[in-house]
Design brief:
The complex is a heterodimer.
Chain A (H helix, E strand, L loop, with lengths): L1 H6 L61 H12 L22 H7 L2 H4 L11 H18 L3 E3 L5 H18 L6 E5 L5 H8 L3 E5 L9 H4 L7 E7 L11 H10 L3 E5 L12 H4 L3 E3 L20 E3 L11 E4 L8 E4 L16 H37 L15 E3 L11 H10 L6 E2 L9 E3 L7 H20 L1 H5 L12 H6 L12
Parallel strand pairs in A: 2-3, 2-4, 4-5, 5-6
Antiparallel strand pairs in A: 1-7, 6-7, 8-9, 10-12, 11-12
Chain B lengths: L7 H11 L29 H12 L9 E2 L12 H7 L2 H4 L11 H18 L3 E2 L6 H16 L3 E4 L5 H11 L5 E4 L19 E7 L10 H9 L4 E6 L18 E5 L15 E5 L12 E5 L5 E5 L6 H4 L12 H39 L14 E5 L3 H10 L2 E2 L2 E2 L10 E5 L6 H12 L3
Parallel strand pairs in B: 1-12, 3-4, 3-5, 5-6, 6-7
Antiparallel strand pairs in B: 2-8, 7-8, 9-10, 11-14, 13-14
Helix pairs in contact in B: 3-10, 5-10, 6-7, 10-12, 11-12
Chain lengths: 508, 445
């Protein structure tokens, strides 16, 4: 197998044959060029200076370049060739679920009835998108085992923010002022940040030696001042929190609620439902589990799902299905006096709902379950192929991702970062590195269900070759990547002397 | 399933390598009684052509800019989007990548963000800009939180004119923290009245929307003087970013933080999202900025390149002490806006802004001359304004019959103005359609 791969490597060069150099758009600017054609003025010309008060007008738009359309097109096309992407190859970024983003989703989202609709147009003129919203909410409730869903949060962190706020609102509505939230040490950084933004004091809960949370660690921390527990299941080690039912009972017994970070829901689709495990509220990431594109860092969408006990606190407005006696159809309901309020200027990232619903309709119940099964199969397969060469800190069957430590590299002087950078030379986006924090030099790999057996074999062979190379030729790893247009970048310099915008060379 | 490559033979081989004999064994870590014993109750799968037809039918039940001439703005603006914007932003290298954690293979995204930061600094007249926030409303709330951290004060004064949804979101974001929100009054001409009596040494910032939700161009310089007199910051919020092409940069008028919604820069209205929050500030506030920042550096060979930087402010490093919980932001929308601004350019943006302004001036002149219609707010505007009508619902219904989406009925938002509609005129509104709108509002057939 490895012989065959050497005959036909995944990449021969960096970039698509030729690596273009491309300056900043401002450096390409020439006075007098334009890339836009405006319609002719069909109303009387008016001098703004004659209408607006003195001092209200700007003289110029500094900071904007002048280019023709051709130059703009080449500029951004060239920039695009410098990116790794799911459509180019495996992008096994752990906890980010970089699965394939179907082309049909993109086509549907661009239909004028979705892309050209306005959030404040009369509901009678928005029945299609409101129905889609309502159906997606119900489907996500069914998938998560929760009772109600709001699609308003714009990303997972805003969904968390909303969920934690609902927990606060719940306790307040019962006349209780609980100030603390328990968060495991394996949690994503957004969990404690969302808790703090809600005014909670964060209490860290250590995970056990087997990588999961134990009831004995949670019980002594619970008390009348604890609002609840935030956890991720499967957790960031890729492990199913198998004490979850008991832990939820403990939290509930002392009046707390349990928040679930749904970043890793892909492993559970059709297999198990967080609501059935005892969770009271969770967020989902449509850009992870439901195939909406990650877009170089968003936009995402982070619906929040709750049990009925929290439903009165959902963000407003809520999409409501009208009774037949009201004429049927859908409208927006603002009458939730105990709502946490509004999170988004409009109703949320509707374009992502359209993509996620298209995906759900393409997959159906069997396809969803198949996603979870193949994602888990892929992660366990990679673990089996790699565990001889890379140290597995928690040796248990994994769910959607597997995490390795840098223990076997310790005597080579090669770091996890070096391994990650060397993977780039072979055409792979590196896995998540140095997270979760509880694993030394963590290498967190989430292949997703999109990757074929041959693709996984090729990736595994590459990592195994890099492990051998760490012993035979560590310097090659320490200076990797070698085949990219740019070599390793000086991040310390960027932070020490921040240059955050382009400025014309002095004297020009 | 066409998105999943595994054959039965593949699965068997993989299970063998793992050392289990059945897929269910992979889920043995989930206690049996916790597993779902039935198929999910969601609609069964449909083929690609069936899904497209079904979603097409749903889309057809929404009004959109191809079916109506659009005069509804109020925070989401109908603008023409050049074809090159979607063509470039649809490239899979941009859409199917993620946050540029690995700079060597993310330079496309990183350089585009750096260009965006530069453009926003130029348009706002400020020194540092971030790599986007969710939307204008959350950008306003993040700006308030930023001002509270920077001043260690807890009171926020909101001058009249903030979009009511932005105010709602501000209340939501501040609800968990010790804080107070105080609202300023609207002057007779529609601009914010003085907030001098509301600002004190507990005030973190004065927030002012420019132009105001109801259209008037605010006096930023006066409000900034009132804020600064007590050591508070001035936060300017803009929901119609195109106005930045015509109006003086907020930073030049005293704003310490300028933020808002940049959907107008080439991002589809899309039923309200995804849109594009922006935020810029004076350099002294850099360490309090929320969100991602991209900085210039060099690689090991000395070549220029770009990286995410100053991440010690952020949640993945600082956890509960981070400046914000934001992680994923609006990367692809930021890219659309950067492409759009590159196409329009230094001259085009100004010309487009003037075109919008001229349409509004024409429309206002027609309204003034029309029997039964009023302009209740006298202050100058950019491209949006209030029209007093005898009956807002009837006026909007007549407009709709004429193929015009006539604007926002202000009854829930500004009932004190009487029956009134908030109308915006962009480059999409022709003279003839403006004439038709005024005629429909006035009741003439």
């Amino acid at each position: 197998m490895s012989g065959a791969m050497e005959e036909r490597p995944l990449v021969r060069n960096a970039g698509p044959g030729i690596a273009y150099e491309e300056p900043l758009v401002f450096e390409l600017s020439r006075p007098g060029r334009t890339g836009a054609s405006l319609p002719e003025l069909d109303v009387p010309a008016v001098d703004p200076a004659g209408v607006l008060p003195a001092g209200a007008l700007r003289d110029d738009c500094p900071g904007l370049p002048e280019l023709s359309e051709v130059e703009v097109v080449r500029h951004f096309t060239r920039l695009s060739t410098w990116n790794a992407a799911v459509d180019l190859g495996l992008y096994p970024l752990g906890s980010c679920t970089m699965k394939y983003n179907p082309k049909l989703n993109e086509k549907v989202a661009r239909l004028p009835g979705f892309a050209g609709a306005h959030p404040l147009q009369p509901v009678e003129l928005a029945q299609g998108i409101l129905e889609l919203c309502w159906r997606l909410e119900r489907a996500l409730a069914e998938i998560t085992g929760m009772d109600r869903v709001s699609l308003q949060p714009a990303a997972g962190a805003q969904g968390e923010f909303a969920g934690v706020m609902m927990i606060r609102a719940y306790h307040r509505s019962r006349g209780e002022d609980r100030r603390k939230l328990l968060i495991p040490d394996t949690a994503h950084g957004t969990n404690p940040a969302s808790a703090a933004l809600n005014g909670f004091e964060v209490v860290a809960v250590p995970s056990g030696p087997d990588g999961v949370l134990h009831p004995e660690a949670v019980a002594p921390l619970m008390g009348p001042d604890v609002a609840g527990l935030m956890l991720t299941n499967p957790n960031t080690l890729g492990l199913f929190e198998d004490h979850i039912v008991r832990i939820c009972e403990i939290v509930h017994a002392s009046g707390g609620l349990v928040y679930g970070d749904g970043a890793n829901l892909n492993a559970l689709l059709g297999i198990a439902r967080p609501g059935d495990l005892g969770l009271d509220v969770m967020h989902l990431n449509l850009h992870k589990t439901f195939s909406t594109p990650h877009g170089g860092g968003g936009p995402g969408s982070g619906p929040v799902a709750v049990k009925n006990v929290l439903a009165p606190h959902l963000p407003v407005p809520v999409v409501r299905k009208r009774e037949a006696s009201e004429g049927g159809g859908f409208d927006l309901d603002y009458e939730f006096p105990r709502s946490i309020g509004r999170l988004h200027g409009n109703l949320g990232n509707a374009g992502m709902w359209v993509r996620a619903w298209t995906y759900l309709r393409s997959l159906g119940p069997d396809g969803l379950r198949r996603c979870a099964e193949m994602a888990v199969l892929n992660a366990n397969y990679l673990k089996a192929r790699l565990e001889g060469a890379f140290h597995v800190p928690y040796d248990r069957p994994v769910m959607h991702e597997c995490v390795f430590s840098d223990k076997r590299l310790a005597d080579t002087g090669v770091t996890t970062l070096d391994v990650a950078k060397r993977l780039i030379d072979h055409g792979y986006h590196p896995p998540t590195v140095y997270f979760p924090l509880v694993v030394h030099g963590a290498l967190m790999i989430e292949p997703t269900e999109s990757e074929s057996l041959e693709g996984l074999d090729r990736f595994a062979e590459t990592l195994l070759a890099i492990a051998r190379e760490a012993r035979a030729d560590p310097e090659t790893l320490k200076n990797a990547p070698h085949r990219t247009r740019l070599t390793r970048l000086d991040e310390t310099r960027a932070a020490r002397r921040p240059v955050l915008r382009w400025q014309p060379p002095s004297g020009s | 399933m066409r998105y999943i490559p595994h054959t039965d033979a593949d699965v068997r081989r993989m299970l063998e390598t793992i050392g289990v004999d059945h897929l269910d064994a992979l889920f043995a870590c989930i206690p049996e009684k916790l597993r779902l014993a039935r198929p999910l109750d969601v609609p069964r799968a449909s083929s690609e052509q069936e899904v497209l037809a079904e979603l097409g039918a749903l889309a057809a039940r929404n009004a959109h800019t191809d079916r109506f001439t659009w005069f509804l703005g109020a925070g989401t603006y109908p603008h023409f989007i050049p074809a090159a914007v979607d063509a470039l932003a649809s490239r899979a290298e941009f859409t199917t990548s993620y946050t540029p954690y690995q700079p060597e293979i993310s330079q496309g995204t990183l350089q585009a963000i750096f260009e965006w930061q530069t453009m926003i600094c130029g348009l706002t007249g400020l020194e540092v800009a971030n790599a986007s926030l969710y939307d204008g409303a959350s950008a306003g709330a993040e700006a308030a939180l930023m001002a509270m951290r920077a001043t260690r004060r807890s009171k926020v004064v909101v001058a009249a004119g903030l979009h009511p949804h932005y105010l709602d979101v501000l209340r939501t974001y501040l609800s968990g923290l010790p804080s107070e929100i105080v609202l300023g009054a609207r002057g007779n001409d529609g601009r914010a009245a003085s907030v001098a009596s509301l600002v004190d040494d507990e005030t973190a910032c004065v927030i002012v929307q420019q132009p105001a939700f109801l259209g008037p161009v605010q006096d930023l310089a006066r409000l900034s003087g009132e804020a600064h007199a007590s050591g508070a910051l001035l936060v300017s919020v803009t929901s119609e970013a195109l106005s930045l092409g015509l109006l003086r940069a907020p930073g030049e008028l005293g704003a310490d933080i300028a933020c808002g919604e940049a959907q107008s820069f080439g991002v589809p209205m899309g039923f309200g999202g995804p849109h594009l929050g922006f935020l810029a500030a004076r350099a002294a506030l850099l360490r309090q900025m929320p969100g991602r920042l991209v900085g210039e550096t060099v690689d090991a060979r000395g070549q220029r390149g770009f990286v995410l930087t100053l991440s010690t402010r952020e949640q993945h490093i600082r956890r509960e002490r981070a400046t914000s919980n934001i992680c994923t932001n609006q990367g692809l929308c930021l890219l659309m806006a950067t492409i759009y601004l590159s196409l329009l350019g230094r001259v085009g943006l100004r010309e487009l802004a003037e075109l919008n302004f001229a349409k509004a001036e024409y429309a206002r002149a027609r309204v003034r001359a029309a029997p039964g219609l009023r302009l209740p707010l006298a202050a100058p505007v950019f491209n949006e304004f209030v029209v007093g009508v005898p009956d807002a619902a009837a006026a909007l219904a007549r407009a709709r019959d004429a193929g015009l989406l006539g604007g926002l009925d202000l009854a829930p938002f500004a009932p004190e103005l009487g029956p009134a509609v908030l109308v915006c005129t962009t480059e999409l509104a022709s003279r003839a359609s403006i004439d038709a709108l005024v005629a429909a509002f006035a009741g003439a057939a």
